[in-house]
Amino acid sequence: MGAQVYAQKFEQIARTPQLGWNSWNTFGCNVNEKMIREMADAMVSSGMKDAGYEYINIDDCWHGERDKNGFIQADKKHFPSGMKALADYVHAKGLKLGIYSDAGNTTCAGRPGSRGHEYQDALTYASWGIDYVKYDWCDTKDINPVSAYSTMRDAIYKAGRPMLFSICEWGDNKPWDWAKDVGHSWRTTGDIYPCWNCEHNHGSWSSWGVLPILDKQTGLRKFAGPGHWNDMDMMEVGNGMTADEDRAHFSLWAMMASPLIAGNDLRNMSDATKQLLTHKDTLAINQDKLGIQAMKWIDEGAIEIFIKPLEKGDYAVLFLNRDDVARDYSLDWNFHYMKDDISKHEIFFDKKRFNWRDIWTGEKGTTGSQYTTRIPAHGVVVLRLSPQ
To answer: Which residue among the candidates 60, 121, 154, 191 is catalytic per the annotation?
Structure first.
């Protein structure tokens, strides 16, 4: 190994997809230490910490200037106590603090990026007690992404503090082909927008609704697994979609083994949003130790069925209704066969029986008889199958 000593990431991190919160979707550049402390408090009081969420992540715009030696400072107006004190506060709650930077000279909001300062910045983050680094891709003309992200990975490793490294280059350079040994997760698409099936064009880039992001995951599941996840972007649960859309969004992200990073204001969320984000059965599907991303098993146009192998021979099965009206659907298990070449799972439903439970309603049944359900518009039904 010799010369390779720093050319690695911290392997023990993100063995299951990371659970946390990020400031961007709700607050954009309007970040400050008081709000971040209140989010940490709310993550605990809401039950999210007990449900497994652990990261409080500050996105863009926390930056002040670099000092005369090139070391980055927090914005003194918005973070007067400094990042070390903020990290101490978050750690005292049993949580972890995340931060944001960019591979270019400037961040997406025009703050100082890390280009040419990677080792300095990693050392600074380590000294502050940072646990998570989201690394963006603005202002990167003529920069090689593999080199840029590998440099920051090496800098973090050399700084000596285990930090989750979240690659955010929007899938532009096919990170799934090269990022497994570089980061713990990588974005597969442009930014999310709180809508079901829309594209918001910003000229040189677009933000996307739930269905377009889902559809862009085709062909990527073989790249995901413990320590290296396809990141479908931070969630928009509680940010204005319908209850059925929120549930579908959350359930799909869980099935796809995407990191689950909430993007709402945790301090004033509705009971419905809180119950969704802390839903134990959905989180268990996402956090399953096998770390297998769901496969689209049956595609009937408006209705799609996804299946995800779980520990102990269990499976999660999600019925998605893409349509604008509710639909009745029947599945005769005996006529269907499931073979997953990637995870090497297969089921002959006519030979092997499962008990199923609807994780939302608690309804129970067996695959020995036909399953019939009504799936709401823009909604899902999720079953957990256990071998009989």
So the answer is: 191
Q: Please state which of the four CATH numbers 2.60.40.1180, 3.30.1490.100, 3.40.50.11690, 1.20.1330.10 is assigned to the domain occupying 295-387.
A: 2.60.40.1180
Q: What is the pLDDT of residue 7?
A: 67
State pLDDT tens for residues 301-336: 999 999 999 999 999 999 999 999 999 999 999 999
- Rounded Cα gap, residues 312 and 214, in angstroms: 27
Per-residue pLDDT, 1: 38
Q: What's the mean pLDDT in 84-94?
A: 98
Tell me the CA distances in angstroms from 167 to 140, 178, 203, 234, 379, one per residue in order. Answer: 14, 11, 23, 13, 30
- Please choose, from the candidates 126, 106, 124, the residue with its C-alpha nearest in 3D space to the C-alpha of residue 115: 106
Among this protein's residues, is 59 annotated catalytic? no
Identify whether 191 is a catalytic site residue. Answer: yes
Domain 2-286: give its CATH architecture.
Alpha-Beta Barrel (3.20)
pTM of the model: 0.97
Q: Which of 102, 121, 136, 288 is catalytic?
A: 136
Within 10 A of 247 (CB to CB), how many other CB atoms are there?
24
CA angle 11, 54, 273 (to 5 degrees): 135
